[in-house]
Sequence to fold (225 residues):
Amino acid sequence: GAGVSQSPSNKVTEKGKDVELRCDPISGHTALYWYRQSLGQGLEFLIYFQGNSAPDKSGLPSDRFSAERTGGSVSTLTIQRTQQEDSAVYLCASSTHPGATGELFFGEGSRLTVL
Amino acid sequence: DAKTTQPNSMESNEEEPVHLPCNHSTISGTDYIHWYRQLPSQGPEYVIHGLTSNVNNRMASLAIAEDRKSSTLILHRATLRDAAVYYCILRANRDDKIIFGKGTRLHILP
Fold:
């Protein structure tokens, strides 16, 4: 498809397990963003990539969270030893370029439920 | 922290205009004002953006105060499909940390 694709769309896991969430940005988009949205809340910034580089990782909630991007395309957000408070929708967005005028295109999100 | 302030919720009648306010008193001279909206169970979608002048597109209009400390998103004729959370954000040219606030939840009454 032409949009941002995220997988899985839904993931139910047990506390303590590791999960990987994938984001396929729009082809040619160099900027990629991860956000987290808890139920009824706004978007919480997690991390941003320009190409394969993540200049600012300070938004990641803890050292259990990590993200990488390879080939300037697909990105993976990994959560180790999941906790119940990690339950949320994880949203990915891409943009042709960072900066003031770049439009963000969001995926549908990956809903994570930690039991 | 978000650099913008918006009302938590608003109501409007169907087929009437809606004015969604946003305060950004600490805006810098190079910050652009962007609006996104999030329909239920979907990711946010772009609505409009501007710097100083008012802007119009097929979805909405953006009115920016002369001092740029506030702006208003205008939906000219609301429909039930416009019920969503509307986010006002600021973006700088080398801004790699785009912060969304809690937005305004817009309810449209039939």
